[in-house]
Amino acid sequence: MQIALAPMEGLVDDILRDVLTQVGGIDWCVTEFIRVTERLLPAHYFHKFASELLNGSKTRAGVPLRVQLLGSDPVCLAENAAFAAELGAPVIDLNFGCPAKTVNKSRGGAVLLKEPELLHSILSHVRRAVPAHIPVTAKMRLGYDSTEPALDCARALQAGGAEHIVVHARTKVDGYKPPAHWEWIGKIQDVVKIPVIANGEIWTVEDWRRCREICGARDIMIGRGLVARPDLARQIAAAQAGQEVVAMSWQALQPLLRDFWLQAMAKMTRVQAPGRLKQWVVLLTKSYPEATVLFDALRRETDCERISQMLGVEQPQAA
Question: What Rg value do the Cα atoms of the chain yield, rounded?
Fold first, then answer.
């Protein structure tokens, strides 16, 4: 079994990937989507979304990073995929699942699930452009406003050369509303020979067990569940191995919060950093009552020094 950290735009950036992969249990992770339109993107743009490319395409913990592209132009996507491979991307992933209105309006993400033929064209162009030893994979939802095209889309992705498909078991219109329709992952696996990885609504070890029972998927990808419970992958790996599952305490989480905050202050502006911290803490409230207390204290705070004090981060002494 493999457990992947899902790409989530505006949330799972290189800082959060670095922190979460330190916990253990995550086998690989994926960048936020890199949007491709009409031109070959420069190297610095790839490094902005995938700073790990400068470290052998691995996080500090040694977890491999895959580069995800989003767009609708097969030729342009192929050119950028080839360049990403030159920069060191070990795997190229293609996004056919983003539900954001602004993305869909410009023919990116889940809206392309209305056009299985285009999915095939994109996959086949990218597959031909990228060296044979570098896998090309895809992430999809069950459809745009219905599950009707799900099987045809999966077949198209397989025929185009996808090594595996990650299926977020909801449509675009479903957004992130529960439930996830895990049974559809099994239906998709029945019509393709490549592996299908389950994604959607896995928040606990029990959710993983139910997902596996319903769809039979061996491998899983987790997004918000891992952000809310940073040791979830480690818990699931322990359960899979028949070991005792011991949840990470709030106290044990504190060094990760401090590490995140220090990196955010180093990489972002003093206006951006507090918002990014609050984004993570509000998801932690789903798993830790103590996070609610912290979030209430942080909610209106914008001063970085005061936030550092709340987190117990020592300020550097003036020379």
Answer: 20
- In sequence order, which ranges of the chain are alpha helices (DSSP H)? 14-23, 43-49, 74-86, 101-105, 116-129, 150-160, 183-191, 205-215, 224-228, 232-240, 250-267, 272-284, 289-298, 304-311
Instruction: Provide the whole-model pTM.
Output: 0.95
Say yes or no: 234 and 255 in one domain: no
Does the residue 119 lie in any domain?
Answer: yes
Could you tell me the two tokens for 237? Answer: 């790996």
Domain hosting residue 259, numbered range: 250-311
Q: Verify that 255 and 277 share a domain, yes or no.
A: yes
Residue 291 identity:
A
| pLDDT score, position 319 | 35
Number of H helices, E strands in the chain: 14, 9
Which pair of structure tokens corresponds to residue 309?
């004090």
Query: 227, 197, 200, 222: which is closest to 288 by C-alpha?
Result: 227
- Show which residues are catalytic: 98
Number of domains in the chain: 2
Model confidence at 13: pLDDT above 80: yes
